Structure formats: structure tokens, C-alpha cells
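Page 47, continued from p. 46.
Same chain as before, 177 aa.
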Amino acid sequence: MKKSVITVSVHMDYKTLREFSMFDTFVLKKHWIRPAVFGAIFLIFAVVCFAAAGKEQNWLLGTVMLLIGLGMPAVYVGMFLSGVKGQAKKLKLPRKVYTLTFSKSGVHISNDLKPEEQVDLEWQKIPAAFRCRNAIYLYAAPTRAFILPDGQGDASPDELWAMMEKHLRKGRARNRR
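Result:
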């Protein structure tokens, strides 16, 4: 049964916020590249140090460079996840955060965290929507997204995704599952 109006009341938790943050930062914005390049450079230097035989200091310097090459990217990801956890605590998750109503005319958004003016988005002005493993990420602007976890709407995730594919401009609905 196809619905003409679908309402999604989003109850956010830390796990959902973390999955979105990882997708947005590391997959969409590709912020994994700099730490990876940094780590690769130090790993190459470590291999060069280990390959240069003859002096005992080469092993020490190679070990230090290896630790830096592996440690700094790990610290980067750890600090990122720590920031996400802090944001979840600040938002006092889990709780209801917003409600989106999808219809032929567009998307109606109401904030459930604080009193704000409700927003209506036209389908043609929505830059992108991504269907991932456990949620749909609807980008209202390049820097503002709404997380729609599966099973929180009054229709199935497949029906909601079909509506988005139908109404969004061609190429704006991207299935990443």
C-alpha cells in the first residue's frame, strides 16, 4: 500500500548518531585521507629505517616512526568518536529530536528539542538523500542533515525511500546499502 503522506518521528540514540557521524565525516567528506596519508608517510619512513642495517639506532628510530604512523590516525579517530559521544551527552540522547512529514509537496520539519519555527522544504531544493544500512540520511543543506532510522516512520523504510526517489531530482537519491 502506497501512502501519500509519511510521518517519521525520530528518536535518536548514541549508536545512530555515531553511525551517521562516521558516514558524514569519513565516507561523504573523506576526512580519512589526511590521517591515512600522514600514517602512510611515517610507515614508509619506518620501513626505510628498518631496512637500513648497520646501526642499532635505526631500529629505535624505525620503532618510533612505526608507533607514530599507527598511533596518530588511531588518536584522530578516537578523538572524533569522543567528540560524538560528548555531543550525544549534550543532547541528552536517547530522546525524540524531530519529526518529518513527507508529502507530494515536500518535507515538513518540526524540531522536538526546542521551540523553533517549523520548516517546509521543497523536493527540488533538497541536495541529497542517502540510504544506508540502518537509516536514511536526508540532507536539507550541504551542512545540515536529518537522520531517519529504519522503523521509526508510519511506513516501511522501502516506502519512504521510494517516495524520495520519486520526488527528488535525478541523481540526488543515492542507495549506499
